[in-house]
Design a protein that fits this description.
- By secondary structure, this protein is an alpha+beta fold.
- The chain has one domain (11-243): Up-down Bundle (Glutathione S-transferase Yfyf (Class Pi), Chain A, domain 2), CATH 1.20.1050.
- It is built from nine helices and four strands.
- It has helices at 28-40, 73-84, 94-120, 125-133, 141-159, 166-184, 197-210, 217-224, 226-239, and strands at 11-14, 45-48, 62-65, 68-71.
- It has a four-stranded mixed β-sheet, covered by helices on one side.
- 42% of the residues are buried.
Length: 266
């Protein structure tokens, strides 16, 4: 990993950890951005805020970089790349950049929906939500639960995948993982021998899928694919070595006050 340098007072704001996921956030986009920051060798401080309405785009994550507050992981990476002159994608061919864009969309626009659905509507979802609701007063939990699940179901329906039955959603998510496994093959990183920005994206989703506690079939399928698990562990050991041998910190997993959940505008 590149040496981490002090570059001002960069803050990374994320929803918190939980569900056995061993990182500072249990959400894919914060993990993506934190991975990229480490990949680029930029020093930062993690700040946990489960009320995503406080962010500049009402989503997680966001950064504070001096006087700048910015949301959307893709735009944040573009900003940091330009400001600090750090580009893990330097030297990539136009073909590799096109491949990276296609996988970026697969994980963030399609697999993301299956991940969200299974996190709260799939096997173990009720228990994960109950764990998250511990942060709310007892009398408010039924109302928060009903509003959260109702709005999440509405969003997934509007985006498309939520219109299908449960078995179809599982099959679609598994198909994304199978395709990822077939593409990765025996490569150490997504595009070859060196980690690139697409690795931050892929690891952001695999990292929060592979380590979720329980026997949910989608997350169990991620764990069942040997090369994806080897890749996930390789990324974890390289960029988050302090997490090896421990589970997620914090008393409970997050339910952002914005019921758009782990989604963001990228």
């Amino acid at each position: 990993m590149a040496a981490i340098e002090q570059r001002g007072d960069l803050e990374l704001w994320v929803v918190g950890p939980g569900w056995g996921i061993p990182f500072s956030s249990a959400a894919p986009f914060p993990l993506k951005l934190e991975t990229w920051l480490r990949m680029a060798g930029l020093r930062y401080a993690v700040k946990v805020e489960n009320d995503t309405r406080k962010g500049p785009k009402g989503k997680t994550p966001w950064i504070v970089d001096g006087d700048l507050r910015m949301g959307d992981s893709e735009l944040i990476i573009d900003h940091l790349r330009e400001k600090y002159g750090r580009d893990p994608d330097e030297g990539l061919s136009a073909r590799d950049r096109a491949i990276a864009t296609a996988w970026h969309r697969t994980f963030e626009e399609h697999y993301h929906q299956a991940f969200e659905h299974e996190l709260f509507f799939g096997v173990g979802g009720a228990a994960r939500l109950e764990e998250a609701l511990r942060g709310f007063p007892f009398v408010l939990r039924p109302l928060v639960r009903r509003m959260f699940l109702g709005q999440l179901a509405k969003q997934l329906h509007a985006r498309g995948l939520g219109r299908h039955d449960h078995s179809t959603i599982i099959a679609m998510g598994k198909a994304d993982l199978d395709a990822a496994s077939a593409y990765l093959g025996d490569k150490p990183y997504w595009l070859g021998d060196a980690p690139r920005t697409i690795d931050a994206c892929v690891f952001g989703f695999l990292g929060v899928s592979a380590y979720v506690e329980g026997d949910n079939p989608l997350f169990a399928h991620a764990r069942s694919l040997p090369n994806l698990m080897a890749y996930t562990e390789r990324m974890r050991a390289r960029f988050f070595p302090e997490t090896i041998g421990r589970d997620a910190g914090g008393p409970s997993a997050p339910v952002p006050a914005d019921p758009e959940l782990l989604e963001e505008a990228s």
